[in-house]
Amino acid sequence: MSSRPPVVLTIAGSDPSGGAGIQGDLKTFSALAAYGTAVLTSLTAQSTRGVTGVHVVPAHFVRAQLDTLVDDVAVDAAKIGMLASAATIEAVLAFLDERPDATPVVVLDPVMVSTSGSRLLAEDAVGAMRQLLPRVSLITPNIPEAAVLLDTDPADDLDTMRAQAAALREMGAARVLVKGGHLGGDALATDLWLDDAGEQLLTAPRVPTVNTHGTGCALSSAITALAPRTGSLLEATRQAKTWLTGTLRAADALHIGCGFGPVHHCHDIWKDETDGKNRDR
After folding, report:
1. pTM of the model as a whole
2. Quick one: pLDDT at residue 280?
3. At 266, phi and psi to the nearest 5?
4. Is 4 helix (H, G, I), strand (E, B) or coil?
């Protein structure tokens, strides 16, 4: 019997603070017992306080990274995060079209704005991002991202989330998870899932913490890591949401940075390592 773990890929930008992007995704993959691989689309000058600069990797080199990787490594699932530019999106689109068997499951987290409010996608790239919707297995926009994709106002209630999820499906998305964390005002954080089988509401207790840096990256990468083992994107999403709640509950123990600190990707692994003994050494 083979002991090969699920092999998963993140196509995303770098976050030097370690909470989001490639660094956060690789932590998530490891925490959930998947072997992580990575293709970088951009470098950011970033901390928990915000993003001060973005350096985009040339699109042809993003494609070279992808081709070189899948020529050698069998990838079970891929997560697409920060793509930054229209040229990069077009390169990823071409890869998905030309090599459809290389990434059998693809989760798209349409990263546009960071937790601190910094813009991470060029304005002229939104149209290209829409072209990705029919080519992926699942999209996981938060409320502001869904509104940008649909060129409308952000949802302010569950009924509007329903309508926007349906509109994203009409644009070609096979499965949609609209993350409802931005609604606020309720003891539960409610995400809305919509696919051919209908709607599912996924809820979890809302965690009172400001340390939410990388939340969206963590959820989408957790779904990607869990999809090969569960064989179901919906079940992977349920398990990922439960895991994410744990990362948020443990986030305050990390004390990383002075802004929006990261979630605690390794909360189930480190156990006693965040008890305060090794802080600020």
Report:
1. 0.93
2. 41
3. -100, 25
4. coil
Report helix, strand or coil for 219.
Answer: helix
List 195's β-bridge partners, or say none.
198
Q: What is the pLDDT of residues 142-155, one digit of tens each?
A: 999 999 999 999 99
Q: Give the CATH number, domain containing residue 106.
A: 3.40.1190.20
Q: Is residue 238 part of a domain?
A: yes
Please report whether residue 51 resides in a domain.
Answer: yes
Angle at 119 between CA 118 and CA 121, to 5 degrees: 150
The range of the structural domain enclosing residue 241 comes to 7-265
Inside any domain, residue 14 = yes
Cα–Cα distance, 83 to 90 (Å, whole number): 10
Does residue 191 fall inside a structural domain? yes
Tell me what percent of the residues of the chain surpass a pLDDT of 70. 92
Domain count, the chain: 1
pLDDT digits 0-9 by tens, 217-275: 999 999 999 999 999 999 999 999 999 999 999 999 999 999 999 999 999 898 765 55
Tell me what pLDDT residue 271 has. 72
Instruction: Show which residues are catalytic.
Output: 179, 212, 214-217
In sequence order, the 6+-apart residues with CB closer than 8 A to the CB of 10 are 22, 25, 26, 29, 36, 37, 38, 39, 78, 79, 81, 221, 224
Any residues with CB less than 8 A from the CB of 88 and at least 6 apart, and which? Answer: 41, 42, 56, 57, 59, 62, 125
Terminal CA-CA length for the chain: 45
Q: CA 138 to CA 233: how far, in whole Å? A: 8
- Band (33; pLDDT cuts 50, 70, 90): very high
8-state DSSP, 134: G
The amino acid at residue 155 is A
Helix axes 21-31, 215-230, angle to 10 degrees: 40
Of 141, 126, 12, 6, whose CA–CA distance to 76 is shortest?
6
Q: Give per-residue burial for 178-217: e unless 16+ CB within 10 Å, then b.
A: bbbbebeeeeebbbbbbbeeeeeebebebbeeebbbbbbb
